[in-house]
Amino acid sequence: MTQALLTVSNLSAHYGVSQALFDVNLTVHAGQAVALMGRNGMGKTTTVNAICGLMATTSGAIVFNGQSCVELPSYKVARLGLGLVPEGRRCFANLTVRENLLMAARPGEWDLAKICGLLPRLHERLDQYANTLSGGEQQMLAIGRALLTNPKLLILDEATEGLAPVIKQEIWRIVATLKQAGQAILLIDKSLAELLPITDTCVLLERGATVWQGLPNSLDANLRHRYLGI
Amino acid sequence: MSEKMLNRALLSLLIIAPWLAHWIDEPYYVSLATRIAILALAGVGLNIALGLGGMVSFGHAAFFGIGGYVTGILASHALNYEPLFSGIFAMSGSTQMLFIWPIAMLVGAIAAIFIGLLSLRTSGVYFIMITLAFAQMIYYFSISWPNYGGEDGLPIYLRNSFPGVNTLQPIQFFMICCTILLITLWGVSRLQDSRFGNALKALRQNETRVAAVGISPLGIKLAAFVISAMITALAGSLFADLNRFVSPTMFSWHTSGQIMIFVILGGIGRLYGPVAGAIMFILCEALLGSWTEYWQFFLGLLLLWVVLFARGGLIGLLCGDKAHD
Asked: How far is A230 from chain B (nearest CA, A)?
């Protein structure tokens, strides 16, 4: 096994006085796709926000590429090589597609031409404002923007939520292509049928704590029923 | 009418009108156009912070006044043959615009770094109040600074000079101011379309999201605030030369409000918005002011109308295009 790219150990975090994360543990290795799973409200997005420095942690460790990022502001965490595709897309509506993509670009393997090759729909709409795109196109824009930061680890938080089935398929095709290219990915998604085939490791969260980690084929019906409600 | 065409029309008006006034020997109108160009320049400066970055600075008079006072102080020392500093920092005054402008911009930048580092950690009404407080602090300091005229201000007996130009000729001084405005507009248009400009526009929408892609919000905002202050300080320097006089009024909150009115009238975040705003403001002052001393009442009505019904400002209204907020 390669050296761990991201290690989260015994992580806890609070929203004000309410504790949201109790004891989260997960590891992502280079080139791996890890699925962070759990029912709604179990702390998946909170974990991602804590990893990305978007919320303060109370205790525990987050080590990315050999460097602790617990005390770092979010922009420094991103510069270490964490690319976040946030829940709800969150593109900059007052910028064009091209501006959305290039404002965050950092030198590396991914450039605008390569992004346009992976996401041809964006290529057709480079000079359109982001708020004139459909939901699926906005999601592709969010993925493209994160990739142009040339991340070592790409985090996709509910990337297919609320999209039409045909667009979901397109997003999963993109994720599979990235995985094949050796991109490390941390995924949060509810579509198990599409998620599990491209996942190397699954992490189950229950009430803000890691309750199970293992291979996707070990995620049996009992675990699915107990922790995912399916 | 497209925004590009309107911008060209505005510039043509600003350049041709004073030449016509010059040919029919009406220097007053040349001075009026010079005032428009200088105040538009101050507005272009504020527009970087307010329009692009969403930083509602109510203290840009501080930078406008700093530019003016740097010009006045350097000129007065040069004309009185008194050194500005002695010892290892020995420096004499100057009446050369090419020397004065960089100093004015540098002092404006230093003040902006200091004010920005303290105020940019806040937002909304706190940011407005801190920037206002700094400008008012400098205003009261200038009033109680007898060495440079205190409340009475500081006269500049002879307009500062520019190589190869007779700056005392109104049309020639106008051309200097207009050229600076054009160069600044070009520079700001490049900045708007750069990665820096896009990050600044994105910050106006959501700082957290910008930070999540690896951009330091404070760094970007501070850089924009400093660039904005430098342009406003340069405008202050030209304004001092236009009037051949500087006074604490340049630092007052009225001046901050006036610069903000140019931006709002013309269209917040639009490159030529401050130019349109300054033209409208000065025309109101000149035309309505000759009719009634309560001309600002009508300006207030116009401002209300723009804010309520023309969110893209005069430029947005004439182009039939709202701003992309």
From this structure: 33
Could you tell me which residues of chain B have a Cβ less than 8 Å from any Cβ in chain A? Answer: 195, 198-199, 201-202, 204-206, 208-217, 324-325
The answer to whether residue B121 sits within a structural domain is yes
Q: Is residue B169 part of a domain?
A: yes
> How confident is the model over A22-49, as pLDDT tens digits?
989 999 999 999 999 999 999 999 999 9
Residue boundaries of the structural domains of chain A: 4-228
Contact B215 A86 (CB under 8 A): no
Nearest of B45, B21, B78, B3 to residue B238 by alpha carbon: B45
- Cα separation of B54 and B67, whole Å? 24
Contact of A102 with chain B, judged by CB distance below 8 Å, is answered with: yes
Nearest to B214 among A54, A92, A104 (CB): A104
Q: Model pTM?
A: 0.90
ipTM for this model: 0.87
CATH of domain A4-228: 3.40.50.300
Q: Check B198 against A94: CB less than 8 A apart.
A: no
Domain count, chain B: 1
Suggest the residue from A99, A102, A133, A155 to mutate for an interface test with chain B (most B CBs closer than 10 A).
A99
Contacts of A131 in chain B (CB under 8 A): 324
Examine residue B126 and state whether it is found in any structural domain, yes or no: yes
Q: How far apart are CA B205 and CA B200, in angstroms?
A: 9
User: Chain A to chain B, count of Cβ pairs less than 8 Å apart?
Assistant: 70
For residue B109, the domain's CATH number is 1.10.3470
Alpha carbon distance B185, A127 (integer Å): 23
Cβ distance B204 to A93 less than 8 Å, yes or no, reads no
Which domain does B155 fall in, by range?
A: 3-284
Give the residue among B157, B168, B181, B135 at the shortest CA–CA distance from B35: B181
Residue B277 lies in a domain: yes
Q: What is the mean pLDDT of chain B?
A: 92
B57-96 per-position pLDDT tens digit: 999 999 999 999 999 999 999 988 888 877 777 778 899 9
Residue B173: closest CA among B20, B63, B33, B317: B33
Tell me whether strands A201-206 and A184-188 are parallel, antiparallel or unpaired. Answer: unpaired
- Put simply, the answer to whether A90 touches B204 (Cβ < 8 Å) is no
